[in-house]
Specification:
232 residues; alpha/beta; Rossmann fold; Dihydrodipicolinate Reductase, domain 2; 2 domains; five-stranded mixed β-sheet; 7 helices; 11 strands; 34% helix; binds 1,4-dihydronicotinamide adenine dinucleotide; binds the ligand O=C(O)C1=N[C@H](C(=O)O)C[C@H](O)C1; EC 1.17.1.8; 4-hydroxy-tetrahydrodipicolinate reductase; DapB_N; cytoplasm
Length: 232
Amino acid sequence: MKIALLGYGRMGKTIEKLAQERGHEIVKTIDANDDYDFNGAEVAIDFSVPTAAVANISACLNANVPVVSGTTGWLDHYDEMVALCKKNNGGFIYASNFSVGVNIFFELNKQLAKMMQGLKDYNVSMTEVHHIHKLDAPSGTAITLAEGILEHSDKTDWVLDAEENDKISIKAEREGEVPGTHIINYGSQVDEITIEHRAHNRNGFALGAIIAAEWLKDKTGVYSMKDVLNLS
Ligand SMILES: NC(=O)C1=CN([C@@H]2O[C@H](COP(=O)(O)OP(=O)(O)OC[C@H]3O[C@@H](n4cnc5c(N)ncnc54)[C@H](O)[C@@H]3O)[C@@H](O)[C@H]2O)C=CC1
Ligand SMILES: O=C(O)C1=N[C@H](C(=O)O)C[C@H](O)C1
């Protein structure tokens, strides 16, 4: 498969290595200030920066190159990208986290939220820990987890680094080179329940994005990682 990479940083380089090991060819890398020349790519993978994601995804869709985006921090514009994809009859997948483990964790989180619904003695909160270079907070993954809890909760929204009774408190910690840790806690006066996902490195994110690109290559439409992994 011929792949164009948008963003050639930590994730771009990890994807390049794993994609080549799976027999794929990186035909183009596009970083800041590079032209949108896709050089015959059959699929594009965008892991860039929050301020570049919309332009990058639009450029792929306008060039009829299906695009997988893992960039976080731009989701206010998600509906615009969905509309552009549909208008162009293109292919598009966004996921806040492409790792198989986190996508299972997303489902576990929703199941737990469902079980805890109505148990007023417990208060839910979340902590995410990432490396010091991360530009956005909270992480895209933490936002997806919060949305999963909100589906089954009386809480009205999430709030970053603050405590409000009717909101899910998300604490964002930045520490060294941590690849990504997400912790959900239900605490009461008598006990607490904690679930945690801890990435050991970036390979899981990168492999998931490559699997999504392999799956999307010949498809049109807007999909999620749940479609790719066939999670019910
Ligand atoms: N969905 C997922 O599974 C994961 C998502 N991420 C997200 O992916 C993004 C990238 O993460 P990292 O690789 O760690 O960051 P990074 O900072 O190492 O790499 C970003 C790269 O994008 C480049 N860039 C800046 N402007 C650009 C533009 N206009 N077009 C193309 N490239 C441009 C930068 O020069 C840099 O090389 C972040 O938003 C991060 O949150 C990271 C890991 C997993
Ligand atoms: O910036 C990162 O590194 C990561 N970003 C994603 C996010 O914002 O959720 C996924 C992962 O946690 C690593």
